[in-house]
Amino acid sequence: MARVMLSHPRVSHILVLDDDRAIRRTLEKFLSGEGYRVTTTADEREAVAAASGVDVVLLDLGLPTVDGLDVLEQLRKLDDAPTVIVVTARDDMDSTVKAIQRGAWDYVVKPLDVGRMRLTLRRAIEARDATRALRMLVEDGARDIEAGGIIGQSPAMRELYKSIGAISLNRASVLILGESGTGKELVARAIHRASAERERPFVAVNCTAFARELLESELFGHVRGAFTGANADRAGRFELAGNGTLFLDEIAEMPVDLQAKLLRVLQERTFERVGDARPLRVNARIVAATHRDLPAMIARGAFRQDLYYRLNVVVLRLAPLRERREDIGLLTRALLARISREMHKDVRAVSEEALSLLERYDWPGNVRELENVLTRAVVLSRGPVLTADLLPLDAADERAPNGEEPRADDAVLTLRELERRHIAHVLELTQWNKRRACSLLDISRPTLDRKIEDFCLARQER
Length: 462
Ligand SMILES: Nc1ncnc2c1ncn2[C@@H]1O[C@H](COP(=O)(O)OP(=O)(O)OP(=O)(O)O)[C@@H](O)[C@H]1O
Ligand SMILES: [Mg+2]
Description:
Elements: E1 13-17, H1 21-33, E2 37-41, H2 44-50, E3 56-59, H3 68-77, E4 83-88, H4 93-101, E5 106-109, H5 114-134, H6 155-167, E6 174-177, H7 184-194, E7 202-206, H8 212-220, E8 221-222, E9 234-235, H9 237-241, E10 245-249, H10 256-268, E11 270-271, E12 280-281, E13 285-290, H11 294-299, H12 305-311, E14 314-317, H13 328-342, E15 349-350, H14 352-360, H15 366-380, E16 385-386, H16 415-429, H17 434-441, H18 445-454
Parallel strand pairs: 1-2, 1-3, 3-4, 4-5, 6-13, 6-14, 7-10, 10-13, 15-16
Antiparallel strand pairs: 8-9, 11-12
The chain binds adenosine-5'-triphosphate and magnesium ion.
């Protein structure tokens, strides 16, 4: 006998928990209009009691007597738990990450955009059956996180926070892609801090910072006598990272033969110290980052395709600043506060003209360049207001169409001379605040000290 497949689809049931009566009314009207069955309540106990079997709960985080995140947890523990969409005015990275970690399906910020809400709900309901099948893969249970430092409220950044929340629940390798200065290292640290292993070490290796042999022994360690100069046993970064996170920065710069070795280590989860045969286990989570176009490098034979496939499982793409201009104001305010504090200046405001310039500029160097420009402006400013004359920027829409800048100095410099001048310039800019200089140059303090000595740089007395 032929079975009749469902001829009329089931009406999805949506429960709204919000203490704001006006929002309950609006949502009820909108959702019934969309053809859903709707229940609304302001009482979280009532909501939890009624939620089993409900398809979607729209949950407000800012409830008067209880934290919505706790309600979220209770809801997710129910048998036949509903899909929960957090709908809240609380618009920060911490709440977003926590909500996603505790099992929220999506995070929607008030005021509500009806079109987006419609789409989010449709997707949630479509995904519900699939989610039922997948739930076993997702570790339940709350993890308190302390993930700070990343600034941005643009849609791209909000999606990023959700991804960090989801990634923090497992130990899979992560590949972070993005132009220079988009915050790849910051994100690597945020992933670590959001994970259950946040008390364990976070160990970073910059693959450009070492010659090939040194890089190998940096990564895997060596035993005494393994090569000339190896006069003691030494643990590598894989070992030092232990159960924490190993951040392989500038992975594209790793020599191809080392890439092969790294691939083997990732596949077998074991490695040996250089000059030793004893296998050691890899327990650390691997986070790799690059600003390079890996597929293009693979095409030229400069990056191994097999390693790329291995790393390419969980990928975070950080958007360049010019694609999220709405974050520029926010970043400017936060960075200015930090820079002013560090430079012992008090720049409290930004003129309208200056902000408009910042918002229109193209930012090829992304957030690092913004930090640079603001540091310079803070140093040069003589009052509490940052004005446009302190910003040497050409707004994108005012530049020549081919984007070429006239060059002030056409002499061909050696790389070394260019480096010397640039370091001297940054030191002057930061008034020899070496911590800031390191951060702007993206080098370590020992590296900076070595270069100062090497180039015989000295502070000019005024
Ligand atoms: N979203 C953000 N909020 C606050 N600060 C940021 C953000 N993104 C980047 N920064 C700051 O900008 C600087 C550059 O960030 P980071 O070093 O993480 O970039 P990156 O992507 O690793 O760059 P590169 O490829 O050049 O190494 C750092 O000082 C960092 O703190
Ligand atoms: Mg970096």
